[in-house]
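## retry 2 of 3
previous attempt timed out at serialization; input unchanged, resubmitting
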Amino acid sequence: MLIDTFGRVATDLRVSLTDRCNLRCTYCMPEEGLQWLAKPDLLSDDEIVRLIRIAVTDLGITEVRFTGGEPLLRPGIVGIVERCAALEPRPRMSLTTNGIGLERTAVALREAGLNRVNVSLDTLRPDVFQTMTRRKRHGDVLRGLEAAREAGLTPVKVNAVLMPGLNDDEAPDLLAWAVENDYELRFIEQMPLDAQHGWKRDGMITAEDILKSLLTRFELTAEENGERGSAPAERWIVDGGPHRVGVIGSVTRPFCSACDRTRLTADGQIRTCLFAQEESDLRAALRSGATDEEIGGLWKTAMWGKKAGSGLDDPAFLQPRRPMSAIGG
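## retry succeeded, writing output
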């Protein structure tokens, strides 16, 4: 198992397939983009599948989430999914995407074995979308969401980040739209993972702000068990059900004590936390001929050193050197 000194066991693996993205979201990267990883630095398809196989068959991983950057920009993604679906035991697999490429890939991904998708969409207004992402692709995302639902990649979850002065008034409209289209909406507090390091705690839209806004139009009832466990989202039943809405308060309502994640970057580094300052290199071991057992040992050592929390509540908190696009969502 991938266990740490606080007794947490990692069963959820986030795999970044690329650091590249076809949007330029203001809370993630500058308008001109970033310097992408060189191709030789990226893990090959075979290397990715091997590491996932080790994680699933030897280290107790049961959930695999493919992320980016934008993972649909990875040419071999369908093949990677198909090969991972053949593993024993078979992991549940999902994908976090901006949705632009889903219209053309949803059916193939479902046939390859993908279980479901999370799609980022922060606004229902095309002009605001263009301002936030610096691209005119709003319609592509909506069509991608529809394609995912029709292909059976359900439940289709929609991730939304609210930004002051841009879309902070849209929470109720987004939820009404999600209910109408049978999507599960999840609001995510803006996190200090932007490449520009421009995030500020003051003025951010908090989980409490989001809930207050939703309650102006909807009746929200906390889920009966009242425990989210390792799930990042606190969830509420909307107007008596069956639809639900989630709020991920990574900054103001952290869930570190129950975290069950381990992260693999596109260039083969293990990260124990989104906000970690340290990484452990598996790519070098892979390419120097290490055995599965040796790689698994490196992975276990990395996770054993996982810190108690993200450190976001520490006045001395420093953003990680890598932005979200290079870490993986």
